[in-house]
Please model this.
Amino acid sequence: MSLHHRFIHTMASVWVATYAGKRDGLAAELKEKLEYGDEVDLGPTVSRYLNFDLTKSQHLAPMRLVFWEGVVCGDYPLHFLRWWEDAYSAYDLVDSTKREKAEIRTLLAEAKFLFKDASNAAYPRYGAARELLLGFAIAVERQTLGADDKRIEKGLKHLEAAITQFRTLKPDQTALSTSDHFHIASAVHMTDWLLSELSAADAQERRQSTLRRLAELGAIKSYAWLADVTGNWVYAYNVAEIYGGLGHPDLEQATLQAIKLNPRLADFEANTEFDGVDEPLRNAPALKDVLPKLSEKYGDWLKERAAAYHQHLSTYREDVTKGLKAMLKQVGRKLPSGLSTQRVTKVLSLLLGFAIGLLLYFDGLAAIAKPIF
Model:
């Protein structure tokens, strides 16, 4: 799945989470925007897309407008979301041609123009969204054109400012919205990646201290929530790595969640760089303490998933998304017996402004592997 499609899939998943899982509601919104007749039923298409089947994905074209109306609720201008979607498309141009590089430079120039104003009273989240997208612009620059540590540091400042502002309640709010959590999670995802790109000698220490501060704010919980509602194993695995590096008590649950979404992760010895996992899980410093515990407590569950991975390895190697679908069709998306997925939505609002970090971490922090983008 391209990063562009992943962004559209994320918007669709967050819309459904905002409206209590009503996939038919999303189908109706898309159908209205496309002005299709009564004979067209987009329900099956939406369901397949949310299950990572891109067949007939053209019907999701109005997703950013539906998302802006139903989730963002006009908190910032629509053209912000359009630029963001284009930015994700640019991420797919890592090995770009001269023409594509010119298009990327144009995209970055547009960001300077579109986001030049620090605030706009007509949009309550204008400043927060501006900071987020300025951070994303520098991440695009780093991924496609190259950017030095000085530029990366500037991007990190923008993203941390976005997290702070999205976590500040609006006058009419009593708790953060799903839109707020989505934007916070997006900022955390990009912050972690930019931190991993720093080349300074103290980069690992800097990364851990920043992620610990974000965890104390509750921002990593937003990232875990996004992994849950989207069913995105990449997000779930990155959360597990962060929790492992910080010694967070939710590490075991986060690791099980990642394995639930991608059975390949049940094989701790597998080496599959093609899917973004740079080393066998057994060698990941952040996971070295939790993996033996999982093997002892949930051995049969892990073996079942590892077997599914090996059975469909050739398909997974050829196409990660198709391989995942085959594995999950065989073993299902379920946690070990006796456990259940806890929707983080229920507890997110309790973390607002509450510094939980002082209770959560031990002194011996583990190195965190480079996140999967």
Q: What stands out?
A: Confidence is low (pLDDT under 50) at residues 342-364. The radius of gyration is 20 Å. The longest helix spans residues 178-197.
